[in-house]
Amino acid sequence: MTTSLDTLATALYVKIDDLLKASPQLAPWRPKAGIPPKLSDAELVTLAVMQALLGFTSEARWLRYAHLRRLFCYLPQQSGYDKRLRAAASLVGHAIRALACDTAVWTDDVWVVGSTPVECGRSRETVKRSALAGWAQYGYCASHSRYFWGLRLHLVCTPRGLPVAYALTGAKADECEVLLDILTTDPDLVATRRGQTLIADKHYCGREFERILAGLGLRLLRPARRGEPGRAGARLFKPLRQLIESVNATVKGQLDLERHGGRTPEGVIVRVLQRILALAAAIWHNHKTGQPTLRSLIAYDH
């Protein structure tokens, strides 16, 4: 097996098809009576991952390109593609976990935590008329020294960049509360991870917050805030903190996270999941093919 987009797409299709055969309840709901879709759910998810890896932010342009390249025997129209992709959001989420668990780095005993903006609009008129109003908010990104209107993607990943857990919230959501929600919503994730180390920035702080993490069997490492005494492992924070920034840069730069094009909550959610799945799929395939750099997308973006 080689590292190319064609081999990744073939392997991913087989993986998701096997996942659906083993757990058919993961497939999007459709009425029992009626004509079955010409494009299977496994093909749909594979098509979405290829779109993200190749950098097509426009569904219309992507479907024209896929049609000209004859990538699939049948391709839906843009409206049908969007509708089916939104309905398959839950399947995309399960596919992310299935791929992550099928790698050696899934069992890594260190997690890196962070959040990054997901911009959803820039004009005042967009803010007033958008279907995202009420969920999307004005926020500030200290890493880039800018204000934005939109959401935040909270990501827990391994040092090699493999997505472990994630959440999409309003821009002003408290990072500590979101992380606790991520960990308590999926208790199986931490039940077998006693002694897991979390590396975060100085915003993940608070006596009660750290007490809850300790109760879950997790050890938090973060830089000391102003006025606090020095904390253990301080010399390791700078290089390790760059890991989550590097992962965010991959998702936002190579996978065009901030050019997602979603205009409704359902549309934004599935487009963010689409990009997380593309990252997980690249890491999974690089692991299976024995590549030295698991997070490299170079072999798949052209």
From TrEMBL:
One term of GO molecular function: transposase activity
Biological process annotations from GO: DNA transposition
Signal peptide range: none
Entry-linked InterPro entries: Transposase_11
Domain Transposase IS4-like intervals: 112-279
Top-rank taxon: Bacteria
NCBIfam families: transpos_IS982 (NF033520)
Protein name: Transposase
Source organism per UniProt: Carbonactinospora thermoautotrophica
